Inverse folding.
């Protein structure tokens, strides 16, 4: 199953080396982020999602396949909703963090040079023009267009969720890249108190004859929430009550549609 949710191209990660149990931001402001992901030079997005921050919770809604991930930071819990099959499962942040703790030493020993690099990545930071941030390495380059001035509460909530979602995604998608690369990118943005309106990820091949792979994501922050956003939140809460609860292993075997 391929997921392209909020925090772009499945490589977002929390600042590598920051403790999972650190105090988080005060979650209070309501807003949403509309996301679109493009592969290469595509004009139409390969994936679209909407992420709604409301009442201290996050509702990450993927269009196709129809799946919603609800993050309750206070309770330390993710709820995954398969809208097509009307099933749900739950994972605690402790379970997700424990998986990431086990993943890092395994990735470091990988024979795949990209995976080994992502176990403890290092980037060179630069800015070629105002409002741009570039983090480069022999394997991966991120080019970010930073959004205009954004309130500190919004920035902190957004990055905190992206950090946790990156860890979650590494668990949800077997074989996905370790989440220790983009987390450093996320940390660089957090240090600048900014979020990105565009991120271009370039994967550099290990062999010179191959062309680099590029993935671009667009992110539009919207505030205040619209009535349709609140309706989507209400439906997600209803689904959390009514969908059949299954184990994580069972849920992962059911393809969203």
């Amino acid at each position: 199953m391929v997921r392209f949710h909020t925090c772009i191209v499945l490589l977002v990660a929390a600042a590598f080396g920051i403790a999972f149990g650190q105090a988080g931001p005060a979650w209070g402001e309501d807003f949403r982020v509309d996301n679109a992901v493009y592969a290469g030079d595509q004009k139409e997005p390969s994936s679209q999602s909407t992420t709604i921050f409301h009442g201290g919770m996050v509702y990450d809604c993927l269009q196709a396949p129809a799946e919603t991930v609800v993050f309750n930071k206070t309770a330390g819990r993710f709820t995954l909703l398969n809208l097509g099959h009307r099933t749900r499962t739950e994972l605690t942040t402790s379970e997700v963090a424990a998986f990431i703790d086990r993943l890092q030493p395994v990735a470091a020993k990988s024979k795949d040079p990209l995976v080994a690099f992502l176990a403890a990545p290092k980037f060179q930071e630069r800015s070629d023009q105002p409002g741009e941030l570039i983090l480069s390495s022999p394997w991966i380059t991120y080019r970010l267009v930073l959004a205009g001035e954004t309130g500190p509460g919004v920035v902190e909530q957004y990055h905190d969720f992206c950090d946790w979602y990156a860890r979650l995604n590494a668990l949800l998608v077997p074989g996905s890249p370790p989440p220790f690369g983009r987390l450093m990118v996320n940390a660089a943005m957090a240090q600048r108190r900014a979020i990105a309106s565009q991120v271009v990820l370039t994967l550099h091949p290990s062999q010179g004859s191959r062309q680099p792979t590029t993935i671009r994501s667009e992110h539009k922050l919207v505030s205040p929430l619209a009535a349709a956003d609140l309706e989507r939140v209400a439906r997600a809460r209803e689904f959390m009550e009514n969908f059949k609860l299954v184990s994580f292993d069972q849920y992962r075997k059911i393809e969203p549609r």
The radius of gyration is 18 Å. The mean pLDDT is 87.
